[in-house]
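Supplementary Note 3. Input sequence used for the single-chain structure prediction.
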Amino acid sequence: MKLLIVGGYGTFGGRIVQLLENEPRLTMIVAGRSLPKAESWCARRGAVTARLLPAAFDRDGNLGAQLALLRPDTLVDASGPFQAYGEGRYRLIEACLGLGINYLDLADGSGFVAGVQDFDEAAKQAGLYVLSGVSSFPVLTAAVVRRLSSGMARVDAITGGIAPSPYAGVGENVIRAIAGYAGQPVALRRNGGAATAHPLTEQMHYTIAPPGRLPLRRTLFSLVDVPDLHGLEELWPRAKTIWMGAGPVPEILHRGLIGLAWLVRVGLVRSLSPLASLMHWATNRLRWGEHRGGMFVEVAGIGAAGAPLKRSWHLLAEGDDGPLIPSMAVEALVRKALDGQLPPPGARAAVRDLELSDYEALFADKTIHFGFRDDSGADANKPLYAMLLGCAWQGLPDEIRDMHEHTKTAEGRASVERGPNIIGRLAAWLVGFPQANADIPVGVRFDACNGQEIWTRTFGGHEFSSRQFAGRGRFERLLCERFGPLTFAMALVAEPGKLSLFLRGWTLLGLPLPMWFCPRSTSFETVEDGRFRFHVEISHPLTGLIVRYRGWLTPAGSQASSAIVPPASAPSSRQP
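The predicted structure, written as discrete structure tokens, is reproduced below.
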């Protein structure tokens, strides 16, 4: 296949090249207005399996002559911004149909994608496929909704969002598109009827948390104008509400953009388009935080038995793999075409042309993790840890699951170390941590009630307790543990043979405290020699080690615990 990528050295086009450059059956024409830039891009890719050809291509020029010279089998328009193409915005599609060239684009404008349907009859007569919106919005979202809605008698609401890493690198055309529609009226589906909304002036918070993975921090999402607003309505016409958002970080820049969008909405500013260059500069230079991104899709509806259902899909991408996801729909379609699985002829939004399994095959060799959650309330009666871990719970060793699910009391032995710093010792005393001891009997009792667990730990004759519960609001999807006035929010991360707890926030009397001042914690549960083992280490940059205790536990009354000297008082919970 000869693939012409218009905008091939740009942000999305370049990532398409990166994803497909290992394909020996492919010749990719990397094209744009600047031939030197195209040549430089191809040279930088080094030795690749696919054949890369730089070319000059001006979408505002004589398209027929340029396409006749290059003679591609398939063209990918990865340039944009599609919202700004103006009166002749479909000239490239018309030229491709006239010359027998298949067409794909990464359009993110709902109006542009919806209009491609007008070329359906011409594409079918020519035996060509013309697919628009070939990106995460709406191709991946549609595939996920199909999976989530399986078995539902009715889909009532579809909500989704993308939270890119601050280091993802955003192209200028993307920023120009956002600046063009920010605060402008757009049509969408809401509460069962047609409605008008204004992108970037509506917000929601959401925590992207694939089961058993370290979640993204709770993210602010703003409504965006994407093809899903209309494309998903055609697939699920009974859906009462469809809402899609983006959650760029740092949040302070996001909130600044929200304020500017409101100026457009109330009529004080006509458009943010004149600020596009400044917005692009700020987005790609003023960035900090974790180099991680994610995506979520949530579907609410009615099950076959008439009960309400709510399910969600969560995706987490580490490092540089996240920015590749919007270009993976093109990768998947090209690879399938090379294998003889061509999309059916016709012109349409590409919401039916890929399934989630097509994406999952591409995620497999990257640091991209995903999972499903049932938010219908069916997990409310499960043990606390099982509820928070979702489908990752079953992957833990039996000894860890038994300790959290069935054991009422446990006993074993532990060692305790205390730091030498006087402030650290005072902190340990205030919380109630035990004194140092190289070998001490330990007991744990936990009492579960109303979705909470009280863990009472006994080290020798010393007892201290805490209350654990599922976080809400800013601590959604996290395990919260309260010691007196302090509450610590932790992520449960399932690793091979191990359950780790990572601190993600803390409060004093309910007031959030800065993480730079938070104690550091290394806590995990594992299994050795058939025994449940625990390790808890708490320190602080100002004091060093505060306490470290580690050891093993077995359910009280088991054969392994019969030789243990019993603690002085009743044992207490699941992990000390």
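The longest strand covers residues 437-449. The radius of gyration is 28 Å.
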